[in-house]
Structures are given as structure tokens and as C-alpha cells.
Specification:
This protein is α/β, with parallel strands linked by helices. Helices cover 35% and strands 19% of the residues. The protein binds one RNA strand through α7, β9, β13, α11 and β27.
Length: 823
RNA sequence: GCCGACGUGGCGGAAUGGUAUACGCGUCUGUCUCAAAAACAGAUUCUGAAAGGAUUGAGGGUUCGAGUCCCUCUGUCGGCACCA
């Protein structure tokens, strides 16, 4: 009999990590006969260290991947690095090193940490977005967008972060008007920018056909995209003696007879033209002031309405009325057509504006049962439904019909049309920074904007540059980079010095994992068809709009270009929660509540940290990291180690069936059922609780006779398999110690027999009027009559019935009997 | 302001309309030890000597029976917010 061994994680974890690595057991082969399962996690930014959030995210996602592998899938679970971006550049400026060196050494460190988790990463598929063999294809993709008119350059007011010294996409400006990265207040700046025409896919992006995503995420994307149905109506004006038309967008064409003024956004191209000479100074001042405003100031809803009369007029095409043209910053250039008709009676914003500037408020819709009243006495706009009044030929029309009737009318008259607008604006991808993929465009004095020919890719980012303290991109001063030859005429030309938003890199990395080493193509059609789309994607909800929306856009655009054959990149999406410090606050150095996962791996084991992360609570809820709570998981793993290793050295295995062995067998089946269902639904916390319960039972019985039965041995075998996805090292080691030759992770997931999950007896709960009065152990075969008899004659129950009349006995088979009595 | 989710022991949390508080942490008691740690055994929602009573943010409703379903309120969190 061998002596008892102690759980020694240091030794076994490095032993198995090395073995898995050298034997490449987690590489997903392209030619497996098994069905594929693409298990993806959002790739990390190489900040230098894997933090608690990474462990939380990746432990569970890996457990799921391991579970699916044991269920017979060819699981592809890749890992890579989203390696371009500002932190590298800032570190370079601060420390006088190269961004590339900083990034690559961080990656090196994080690879080690990722290995120490014991996850089944497919390292052969690793991608690093800042390396030329990756960003070559990011550039290639940009060129495809350009070729299909989905990338364009324009001079427009852009969100500018004065701290990061670069433009930002709308999605990167937080709701409070600050920079997503650094929290600085974003201002607007007019410069030439490259944009991707995501708005062309607004309608399709609103739909989520055939995918299982959290409702919340879908709603967030739909709100972000927005959609308003209405009409574009052209108002007439006269400029320099010429008849001109200015369109407005409205969702309420039925209220057009109530339009008493007209408003242009301050940035509207017609502002200068329509402004009367006498008003020019005032208008110019207002426009300038609006431009200077930060996003915060402009977005404040508390703000009182402001505006300036331009001195110009337009004519309402329906009633021929001449109304004043104003400019006001509550009208946004980026929505609709940047111009509105002001209907103060039935729109609260227009109401406030009209009140402030003394403009007429004219009622054109009256709610049913509403007494006629003077709009001048109103305190707010009347937005309820009703029937049209003061609306010429439309008087008396219920406004439920009026929208359609007026729209039809203006279409027939040729003064407007039905129109849908979206809130979603095009994606600004230019960044005035160095550490990103160069935009593959050349500017030639003769040929203008010329895309870099595909065979000249990649446009290499210089690897050794002089950083500037201001954060200004060093690229524009890199003469070798800047000056080039025009691909069209061969003459001298300059390169675009802006680089691409890092979200460009991450919008397609999941495609590259399918075919990561392909030097000829971004991916081959075969690899694409074999692996994509992603079956399960796990990542934080903070990317609900940014990365997840961009990736969907890429997928749809690339499908239309013929490069992909599916509509959605991520079939099933799961958001893990956020892990907080023990004080309930976000972990941060300034708060001093940061905990390093590495120190807990050293103190306990990787398996302990993994299991603890899964045990904190529901995976989508996140939770607080409390170091002391790891003790519980650590004790569990030790007890598990001891009970398995000891029971397997004990000899004399009996195959005799006893009451005790049958009970163990039943619990084994119940546990398989619970764990299988829980892990399938990402409920790792309750799966672990079930395993702990089973283990507690095995521990309790390890000195009993039953510990020498085949059932008991089978139970510990099942425990190893069920725990394997969660704690891969300890189970692998025990599996080997107990004489198995194959890896536990390569075994088939245990199955259960439904009949075996039911006990022979159950605890019958006896209630009187819904209150529990007694519990009796009875056989499951018991009949209702027997239950009634037991319930009504039970000595402990009797006093609660007393002299009252028993009205009925509700019996729920297998559970309880409720005696209903009335006095 | 609008929309959505949530509120359970000292703590993290568990509960197909059917035994509330599983599992774990912490705490207390005990065993072992010169002692401590570890490990092991037991206790641990509140109240009560016990029988019992009360208890899932507050109040109401549906039901034989409600943490779970419905209504009102309240608190916390998340999203949106001058989008015509």
C-alpha cells in the first residue's frame, strides 16, 4: 500500500502546463471529424499584467471550453493580443523607450501568466495585432472598404480629446461628454478624417436574427443606432433672387400647419447664405460660440434654449405661410437633415424655444374631450394624440391617420417624401497617433488620393521613432515614411500619417484566428467555412456598443463584398460581470485595493484561484474579490485530493450492492445532472456547490465499509471528470495517479440516468394552512390516500387541526400535503 | 425625465409557485498540541428555557400555498437622454 501523498500544486501545475504545451494538446486541428466549437474570449490589451478581471473572465470561459471538449467537440479556443493603442505610446513617451518594445515585452510576460492559468489556449493560432503579418490585413480590409465606397475622407467637426491629442469616434465619447480613455472633456475640432460608412448598415444592424445575445445588449445597440420614421419636407426660400429649397426632417408631418418658425443647426451649410446682412455679426458670433462648446455643455438638457434669428424666411409648402428662420444649437447637424420646422404647440423643445423668443404657438391637434383653449396660456406643449384643427383640408382627421395622409399628400405634390433617419453616425477611424496600423493611402499632388496597391502591403509602421512630449504623432516627422512615390504616376507623393483606430484591429481578429498563418489571404474561404461564425463569445458588457457593433458591421460589409458567407459574427454572447475590490470599488492603484492574481496562485494554486473565481457568484453578476474566501475552495480541493488519492490506494474493491452503495450511486447521477445543466448555462457557482456537496458525502464515508465498493470508486472517478473543466491540473494529476493512461480532459463527459436521479424515499412535508408542521420520510411509491392518512393522524400535526373542520388536503406528489382547515 | 434589472443571515450567495437561508466565508465550542497554526467534529437567520412565534426592502393583491406572479411605494445599479 503506498503512502498518502499531499496535494502539491506547485509541482503538478507546472508539470501539466509544460506537458500540455509540448504535446500541443489544445491545438484545434483543421481536419478533425468532430463537430467544431469556436469558443472565443475577448482578447486582452497587453498592459503588462493579467489582472483579477482577466482571471475571472478567462477561468469560466475556459471551463466552458473544456466542458464542450469533453462533450465531443473539436474546440477552438484561441488567444491573442490587441496590441496597438495609446498606453504603449504614452509609456514610450514617458520612459524614452519604443512602443513596440514595451508592447512585445508585456506580451511575453502575459503569455506566461496566461499559461499559468492552465487554460486550453490554442497558441498555434495566436495573433498580435501590432505585428506586420496581422496589420497587413487590417490595411487590406481598409482598402476593401475604400474600394466599395464604405471608407471616405471628409473635413468635418470631430470629437477631439485634447489630452490624447487625437480624434475619437462617437462611440468613444462617454455620455457625460468625456474621453472614454482618459476622462478629459472632449471638444470639437474641424479636420480631415477617414470614416467608415457604418450608417449604410444601420437598418440591418438593428436586427439580431438567428443569434442568442443578452436582451440588454441588443437594446443598447438598438438605442445607439436609433430610428425615426417620418418625412422630409422641403421649405422654399429665395436667395439672391433665386428660388431654393431647404429640407427638414420631421416625425410629425401631421403637425405641419402648426409650424410657426424654422430652425437650422449652427453648422448647417445654408446658415451663411440665408442670413440677412443686418444679422450677420450676431449669427456669426452664435455659430462660433456653438463650435467652442464642449460636448458636456452642448449635451446638457438642463440648458435653456438659445438661438438667433437669421433675418431670413422660408415658405411653408402646405399653407404658403412665410416663417422666420432661426439658428439654434438644440438642432443637431448630425441628425436628420440638420433643420427642423418649429411646431411649438406640439413639441416641448419647440414650445420652450417659442416661449423664450415670443414666437406664436398655434394649436393644430386637439385631444378628444379637450376644451378649446388659448395656447398662449399653456404651460407645456400638448403632445397627446387627437384630431387635426387649423389644418386646412386636413381638419378633423385623427392624427393616427394624419401622418400617413399628409405624407402621401406631400409626395403627390412633389414637396417631400417618406423618410427614415438613424441616430448612428459614421465611424471615424483616423487617429492622429503613432502606435496603430497606418492608413494605406497616398496623397499625390497630381492624382490626389491614391490607395496603396494591395501588393505593396503592409505599409510598415517605423519601429524606431522620436516621440514628442506633446503626444503629437511622430509619423509626420518620419521623412522616410512620409515621402513616397505615387503608385499611379510615379511622382513624389506623401503618405497619410494618421493611423487607424484600434477598434479596426479588433473588429476582425476572430476571422484571422481561423487561418492565422495565411500569408496570401486574410483568411481562406475553406478556413472561414470550417470555423466561423464564433459559437460562443465571452466578454465584458463595456463593449456592447463599441467592439460588438463594429464587428457586426465588418461582418455584414465583408459578406456583401463576397468575403464571408454568414450574417452575424457571434452566435452566442455572454457578458461576465465585473470583479471589484474587497471594498466594493473598482480595483485601482489610487484606491489601493488592487489584488494580484499571481500572489494567490503562489499562495494556493491556479486551480484554487480558478475555482474561487467561479464560486464568487453568478458569472454575469461579477462580485467582490475577497482573499480570505479562497480558503474555502482551497480546503475543498485538498479534501478532494485526499479522499480520491486515499480511496484509490485502498484495496479489496467489492462489487456488492448495499443500501449505502446505492445511495452513492444515486447521488453520483444527481450530481452529473446538476453539474451538466449548470455548466451548460454558465452557472459555475452552483456547479461547484454541487461538487462540494458530493465531495462532502464521499469524505464523510471514506472510513466506512462503502468506501471499498465499486460504486464509491466510480463516484470519485466521476468527481474527477466533473471537476476537470474547473480545476484542470489537480484532476489531471489524480487521474494519472489513479492509473488512467488517457488525459482526464480527453475523456467523455459522464452521463446520467434520469431514473437514477430519484431517491426511493422523500421527505413529506405536512402543512396546515400553508405552514410547515411536520416532516416525515416516506417511500416514493406512497399513494395519495396513504399520505392523507399519515397527514391527518400525525400526532404533531393534530393540535394544529384541533376542533377545526378539514376542508381539503392538497397533495403535491413527492413534496407535501397541505391540510386546509376552517374554524 | 424615459427604459431596464435588482433588493434573501454578520458576509458572498442558493432556491421548476411547494421544506427559505443549499454551498462557502466568518464567528463560537470541542478534539489534537506545551502552545499556536493546520486538520477534524459540532453549532451558527432573529426571538424564546421550551413549545412556539417572526422573517426574503415597505405596503397591498391573486393562490390551499408567494423570495418567486400582479399592483403601489422605496432604495441600489445599468442604459438612454434637446435625436425633431
Amino acid at each position: 500500500m503506498s503512502t498518502r501523498t499531499k496535494y502539491n500544486p506547485k509541482e503538478i501545475e507546472s508539470k501539466w502546463q509544460t506537458r500540455w504545451d509540448t504535446e500541443q494538446v489544445y491545438h484545434a486541428p483543421d481536419d478533425s471529424p468532430k463537430p467544431k466549437f469556436y469558443n472565443l474570449v475577448m482578447l486582452p490589451y497587453p498592459s503588462g499584467d493579467l489582472h483579477m478581471g482577466h482571471w475571472y473572465h478567462y477561468s469560466s470561459a475556459d471551463a466552458y471550453g473544456r466542458f464542450m471538449a469533453m462533450r465531443g467537440y473539436n474546440v477552438m479556443q484561441p488567444m491573442g493580443f490587441d496590441a496597438f493603442g495609446l498606453p504603449a505610446e504614452n509609456a514610450a513617451i514617458k520612459r524614452g523607450i519604443q512602443a513596440r518594445d514595451w508592447t512585445l515585452s508585456n506580451i511575453e510576460n502575459m503569455r506566461k501568466q496566461l499559461r499559468a492559468m492552465g487554460a486550453r489556449w490554442d497558441w498555434q493560432r495566436e495573433i498580435v495585432s501590432c505585428l506586420p503579418d496581422y496589420y497587413k490585413w487590417t490595411q487590406w480590409l481598409f482598402l476593401q472598404f475604400y474600394k466599395h465606397n464604405l471608407a471616405y475622407r471628409t473635413k468635418a467637426p470631430a470629437n477631439w480629446c485634447p489630452n490624447c491629442n487625437t480624434t475619437l469616434a462617437n462611440e468613444q465619447v462617454l455620455p457625460n461628454g468625456t474621453c472614454e480613455r482618459c476622462g478629459t472633456v472632449v471638444i470639437r475640432k474641424e479636420i480631415d478624417q477617414w470614416l467608415l460608412k457604418i450608417s449604410a448598415y444601420a437598418e440591418e444592424l438593428r436586427h439580431f436574427k438567428g443569434i442568442e445575445w443578452p436582451e440588454k445588449t441588443i437594446t443598447m445597440q438598438q438605442n445607439w443606432i436609433g430610428r425615426s420614421e417620418g418625412a422630409e419636407i422641403r421649405f422654399m426660400t429665395e436667395i439672391d433672387g433665386k428660388q431654393e429649397e431647404i429640407p427638414v426632417f420631421t416625425t410629425r408631418p401631421d403637425t405641419i400647419f402648426g409650424a410657426t418658425f424654422f430652425v437650422l443647426a449652427p453648422e448647417h451649410p445654408w446658415v451663411a447664405k440665408i442670413t440677412a446682412p443686418g444679422q450677420q455679426a450676431e449669427v456669426a458670433a452664435y455659430v462660433e460660440q456653438a463650435q467652442r462648446m464642449t460636448e458636456i455643455e452642448r449635451m446638457s438638457t438642463e440648458k435653456e434654449k438659445t438661438g438667433v434669428f437669421t433675418g431670413g424666411y422660408v415658405i411653408n409648402p402646405l399653407n404658403g405661410e412665410k416663417i422666420q428662420v432661426w439658428i439654434a444649437d438644440y438642432v443637431l447637424m448630425g441628425y436628420g437633415v440638420g433643420a427642423i420646422m418649429g411646431v411649438p404647440a406640439h413639441d416641448q423643445r419647440d414650445f420652450e424655444f417659442a416661449r423664450k423668443f415670443g414666437i406664436e404657438i398655434r394649436e393644430v391637434i386637439r385631444a378628444e374631450n379637450e376644451e378649446p383653449s388659448d395656447p398662449a396660456t399653456w404651460t407645456e406643449a400638448h403632445v397627446n394624440m387627437g384630431v387635426l384643427v387649423n389644418s386646412g383640408p386636413f381638419d378633423g382627421t385623427p392624427d393616427s391617420e394624419a401622418i400617413q395622409r399628409v405624407t402621401k399628400h406631400i409626395e403627390e405634390q412633389g414637396i417631400g417624401k417618406y423618410m427614415v433617419t438613424y441616430r448612428l453616425r459614421d465611424w471615424l477611424v483616423s487617429r492622429q497617433r503613432y502606435w496603430g496600423a497606418p492608413i494605406p493611402i497616398i496623397y499625390c499632388p497630381k492624382d490626389g488620393t491614391v490607395p496603396v496597391p494591395e501588393e505593396q502591403l503592409p505599409v510598415r509602421l517605423p519601429e524606431h521613432v522620436q516621440f514628442r512630449a506633446t503626444g503629437e504623432s511622430p509619423l509626420r516627422y518620419e521623412e522616410d515614411f512620409l515621402h513616397t512615390i505615387c503608385p499611379t504616376c510615379g511622382g513624389p507623393a506623401t503618405r497619410e500619417v494618421d493611423t487607424m483606430d484600434t477598434f479596426m484591429d479588433s473588429s476582425w481578429y476572430y476571422l484571422r484566428y481561423a487561418d492565422p498563418q495565411n500569408g496570401e489571404q486574410a483568411w481562406s474561404p475553406e478556413a472561414m467555412k470550417r470555423w466561423l461564425p464564433v459559437d460562443q463569445y465571452t466578454g465584458g458588457i463595456e463593449h456592447a456598443i463599441l467592439h460588438l457593433l463594429y464587428s457586426r458591421f465588418f461582418t455584414k460589409a465583408l459578406r456583401d463584398m463576397g468575403h464571408l458567407t454568414f450574417d452575424e459574427p457571434f452566435t452566442r454572447l455572454f457578458h461576465q460581470g465585473m470583479i471589484l475590490g474587497a471594498d466594493g470599488q473598482k480595483m485601482s492603484k489610487s484606491r489601493g485595493n488592487v489584488e494580484s492574481p499571481d500572489s494567490y496562485v503562489t499562495k494556493y494554486s491556479a486551480d484554487t484561484v480558478r475555482c474561487y473565481m467561479m464560486f464568487i457568484g453568478p458569472f454575469d453578476a461579477g462580485g467582490l474579490f475577497k482573499g480570505e474566501n479562497l480558503e474555502g475552495v482551497w480546503r475543498f480541493l485538498n479534501r478532494f485530493w485526499n479522499v480520491v488519492s486515499e480511496s484509490w490506494v485502498a484495496g479489496n474493491i467489492s462489487t456488492e450492492q448495499t443500501t449505502a452503495s446505492k445511495a452513492i450511486e444515486q447521488m453520483r447521477h444527481k450530481t452529473i445532472k446538476r453539474v451538466t445543466e449548470d455548466v451548460s448555462h454558465f452557472r459555475f457557482n452552483t456547479a461547484l456547490a454541487a461538487l462540494m456537496e458530493f465531495n462532502n458525502v464521499l469524505v464523510k464515508q471514506q472510513n466506512e465499509v462503502v468506501a471499498h465498493t465499486a460504486s464509491y470508486r466510480k463516484a470519485s472517478e466521476t468527481m474527477m471528470q466533473l471537476l476537470a473543466p474547473l480545476a484542470p491540473h489537480i484532476t489531471e494529476e489524480l487521474w494519472e495517479i489513479t492509473g488512467h493512461t488517457q488525459s482526464v480532459h480527453a475523456t467523455e463527459w459522464p452521463t446520467f440516468d434520469e431514473a437514477m436521479t430519484h431517491d426511493d424515499t422523500f421527505t413529506l412535508v405536512i402543512q396546515v394552512n400553508g405552514k410547515v408542521r411536520e416532516r416525515v420520510e416516506v417511500p416514493t411509491t406512497i399513494t395519495e390516500d396513504e399520505v392523507r392518512k399519515i397527514a391527518l393522524t400525525n400526532a404533531k400535526v393534530a393540535p394544529f387541526i384541533g376542533d377545526s373542520t378539514v376542508q381539503k388536503v392538497v397533495y403535491i406528489p413527492g413534496r407535501l400535503a397541505n391540510i386546509v382547515v376552517r374554524n
